[in-house]
């Protein structure tokens, strides 16, 4: 490899994700090790962890993972930093916290803890400069904040590229072009100008666009977290060549995910069960070990048939050890049919997490009620969804709402 600097972009590892915890760790480990062996530096635009307060064993897994990376003989190093948190390493692994790690102001998040341990560089609200030979790369980062505050944060910080450096702007937020359901989301035009590359996290499928005429990349998550059509694509990360201004997507070995569609077509219970099983068996012939298979059904049963008579759980259990099967049962309304939030009907639901969907409805309802309190709707939503019991969540929300 010459003196040009290659950057690996790895995002949304979601360590500790309960449903597929082993997948999350193994696939994160694989992606990071591949990135470390084929690039000069790694940048991570958020959601290393799946929870704001990871369990001790999850935090230990992350520490071991990043400690192993820090022992590698890197071809570049972090020369300078100018960010909110002090830097304790020259290892070229640069990260920001995402929405899953966002906590109240003044409270440490788990990404910051990895930075304090000298395992990575947290560039929240600031930047770091990477150097290899004569080439210098600046990475400016803004960690995940509430959507209403992001534009104000950009204006307050006023991020600018560094002259003579290849400059990257890294963030972890929704954008209106990709999720057009809230006026609070920034547009591409709102992002600071002059950078050579724009990198975002948050969305779990790959995105390749242009911002201010420059590449805008989202690598997607390294683990399956939402059983949607868009997540059938292979997982991986980007490698960006900062001299040639080219990039490529590097695939990792990840558990296969298939969506199979079954037309109920006025069938009876027995015929439907037969077709469901045939569809699952067909997916199993695609050669993947223990895949995740989601069965989507459309149409209605014949008049004398009842959905309650179909043993869906029996079908699912019948494939244990061979596949993880989920069946979207008939009669369950489509998400687009039960919401009156206009933008949720604009065809971008494949990119939306359940949390984002809930946040969209929550914000819309608050606007309808002429909500006008000091705490922002997103911060209130985060507060209500962050506690382990309803009582604690309500108590904290009331304290925040009526503290004045």
Core attributes:
404 residues, alpha/beta, Purple Acid Phosphatase, chain A, domain 2, 2 domains, 7-stranded mixed β-sheet, 6-stranded mixed β-sheet, 9 helices, 21% strand, globular
Describe this entry's structure for a reader:
With 404 residues, the protein is of the alpha/beta class. The protein folds into two domains: 6-251, Metallo-dependent phosphatases (Purple Acid Phosphatase, chain A, domain 2); 257-328. Helix content is 27%, strand content 21%. The protein contains nine helices and 16 strands. The strands form three sheets. Strands 3-6-7-8-9-11-10 form a seven-stranded mixed β-sheet, with helices on one face. β1 (6-9), α1 (21-38) and β2 form a beta-alpha-beta unit. α8 (377-386) runs antiparallel to α9 (390-401). The N and C termini lie far apart (60 Å). Mean pLDDT is 84; it is low at 331-350.
Write the layout of secondary structure elements.
Layout: E1 6-9, H1 21-38, E2 41-44, H2 56-70, E3 77-82, E4 93-95, H3 110-116, E5 121-122, E6 126-132, E7 135-142, H4 147-157, E8 166-171, E9 197-200, E10 207-211, E11 214-218, E12 236-241, E13 246-251, E14 257-263, H5 269-284, E15 292-298, H6 312-317, E16 324-328, H7 354-368, H8 377-386, H9 390-401
Parallel strand pairs: 1-2, 2-4, 4-5, 7-8, 8-9, 9-11, 14-15, 15-16
Antiparallel strand pairs: 1-12, 3-6, 6-7, 10-11, 12-13
